[in-house]
């Protein structure tokens, strides 16, 4: 059957439009679990007996000085870097260390890098549309015949990211902050269970930072969100629980007030900024 014929069959729900029912099992524990993880680069221990758990629906902020291992930790979770030893589980069923990057992404782990990578020559709407269809060959046909099936989802995401009024604008003319929100929206199109967000407010105006705080806090609960961020004011505005990494290990964990009053944290990290 041709793609056109296949798409014309309105009774069918197509795989690429249907969020994969996430098989992650969180009934008996956290959504993400790292235990005794170690990674060395040329003999340098970048991640050192790292233990970390993220609960389902949690919004967690990860802070730590330069070189603390934050990016390497994200790389391990997403399958970009393989640890030397340790365990990394997504729910109680999925051993992430046996999976490659695309397999981990398809389980529902989305990663937002610091720099926005939207398609500037496409509209906001088209960017979201593209993020939804995993089979890019069907896009033109998709637009013609499948509108009702995906429009609702795109509208929902446009509302979440606050870009409803810019839906037909080219992404290239968006502000830096709007591009970041659009890219978060592109990840949301796939209905992830866990979003990893790297320095979301770098380069943003105060107003954009406030809007980003609202956006990330609104996502928590619906999915788990892990935010790596250097901006302490921003972390304070969104964090319920903060993990401080230092030399590849967890140095402290707790509320922003708890960690910022921890003498060890003050010594190795916040103290540096004071
Ligand atoms: N591929 C690599 N090869 C060698 N060393 C590496 C590699 N990746 C990271 N490192 C080192 O591992 C340590 C941890 O780096 P990482 O980028 O994870 O820290 P970070 O907390 O994300 O820092 P930043 O806040 O500056 O982004 C650093 O000392 C870094 O130089």
From TrEMBL:
One of its GO terms (molecular function) is ATP binding. Keywords: ATP-binding, Nucleotide-binding, Transport. SUPFAM superfamilies: P-loop containing nucleoside triphosphate hydrolases (SSF52540). Coiled coil: none annotated. Gene3D superfamilies: P-loop containing nucleotide triphosphate hydrolases. InterPro entries: AAA+_ATPase, ABC_AA/LPS_Transport, ABC_transporter-like_ATP-bd, ABC_transptr_urea_ATP-bd_UrtD, BCA_ABC_TP_C, P-loop_NTPase. Residues 32-272 form the ABC transporter domain. SMART domains: AAA. Pfam families: ABC_tran, BCA_ABC_TP_C. This is Urea ABC transporter ATP-binding protein UrtD. It comes from Marinobacter iranensis.
């Amino acid at each position: 059957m041709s793609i056109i014929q296949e798409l014309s069959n309105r009774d069918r729900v197509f795989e690429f439009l249907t969020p994969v029912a996430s098989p992650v099992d969180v009934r008996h524990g956290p959504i993400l679990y790292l235990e005794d993880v170690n990674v060395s680069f040329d003999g340098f221990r970048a991640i050192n007996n790292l233990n970390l758990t993220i609960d389902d629906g949690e919004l967690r902020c990860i802070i730590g000085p330069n070189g603390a291992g934050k990016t390497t930790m994200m790389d391990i979770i997403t399958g970009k870097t393989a640890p030397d030893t340790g365990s990394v589980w997504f729910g109680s069923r999925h051993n992430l260390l046996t999976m490659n990057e695309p397999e981990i992404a398809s389980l529902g782990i989305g990663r937002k890098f610091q720099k926005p990578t939207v398609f500037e020559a496409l509209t906001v709407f088209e960017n979201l549309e593209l993020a939804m269809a995993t089979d890019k060959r069907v896009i033109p046909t998709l637009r013609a015949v499948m509108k009702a099936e995906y429009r609702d989802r795109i509208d929902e995401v446009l509302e979440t990211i606050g870009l409803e009024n810019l839906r037909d604008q080219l992404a290239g003319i968006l502000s830096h902050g709007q591009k970041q929100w659009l890219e978060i929206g592109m990840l949301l199109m796939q209905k992830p269970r866990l979003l990893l967000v790297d320095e979301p407010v770098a380069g943003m105006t105060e107003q954009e930072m406030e809007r980003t705080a609202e956006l990330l806090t609104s996502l928590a609960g619906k999915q788990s969100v892990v935010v790596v961020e250097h901006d302490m004011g921003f972390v304070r505005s969104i964090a319920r629980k903060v993990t401080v990494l230092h030399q590849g290990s967890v140095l402290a964990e707790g509320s922003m007030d708890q960690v910022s009053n921890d003498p060890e944290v003050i010594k190795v990290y916040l103290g540096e900024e004071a």
